Amino acid sequence: MKYKPLSREFLLKRGYCCDNKCKNCPYKTTKMDKIKNYLYNIAMKSPLRKWALSLTGWKWWVWQLVVGGIVFAILEWLFNSIGFTLLPWR
Fold first, then answer.
1. What 3-state class would DSSP assign to 42?
2. Residue (of 38, 3, 2) closest to 22 by Cα position
3. Residue 90 gets which letter from DSSP?
4. Where are the domains of the chain?
5. 36 phi and psi angles, rounded to 5 deg
6. Distance between CA 52 and CA 5 in Å, rounded?
7. Angle at 50 between CA 54 and CA 38, to 5 degrees
8. In sequence order, what DSSP letters do the residues of 2-49 get, joined into one string?
9. CA 51, 52, 56: angle at the middle one, nearest 5?
10. Tens digits of per-residue pLDDT, 3-46?
11. CA neighbours closer than 13 Å in the CB half-sphere of residue 16
């Protein structure tokens, strides 16, 4: 018995991927998508992220200013090493 391939429209109406590697599957995932999802899940489970999300009030502001200052200092140093600056008065 020969099977007919399911149409893309039918597969979209069904609403999910059956993981049978259908030829017209609109839900195909590439290797890059799998890597992206893997890294996203690691980031979501990060203890640093959970800690940062638990900060409230003045602790949150201190965290933002300190980390922002460090990032700004690193970027300014990198740009200065190639002859550019983030500061308008230099």
1. helix
2. 3
3. -
4. 1-45, 56-90
5. -60, -45
6. 49
7. 155
8. PPPPPPHHHHHHH-S--SS--TT-TT---HHHHHHHHHHHHHHT-HHH
9. 105
10. 777 888 888 888 887 777 777 888 777 778 888 889 999 999 99
11. 2
Residue 17 and residue 9 in contact, taking contact as beta carbons nearer than 8 Å: no
Q: Extract the tokens encoding 34.
A: 């799998």
In angstroms, rounded to a whole number, what is the distance separating the alpha carbons of residues 46 and 84? 34
The C-alpha atoms of residue 86 and residue 78 are separated, in whole angstroms, by: 10
Helix or strand holding residue 66 (H, E) = helix 58-81
21: its two tokens: 């590697």
- This prediction's pTM: 0.48
CA distance 35 to 29: 10
Measure the CA–CA gap between 30 and 78, rounded to whole angstroms: 35
Q: Is 56 helix (H, G, I), strand (E, B) or coil?
A: coil
Q: Say which DSSP state 20 is in.
A: S
User: What is the C-alpha separation between 44 and 33, in angstroms, rounded?
Assistant: 16
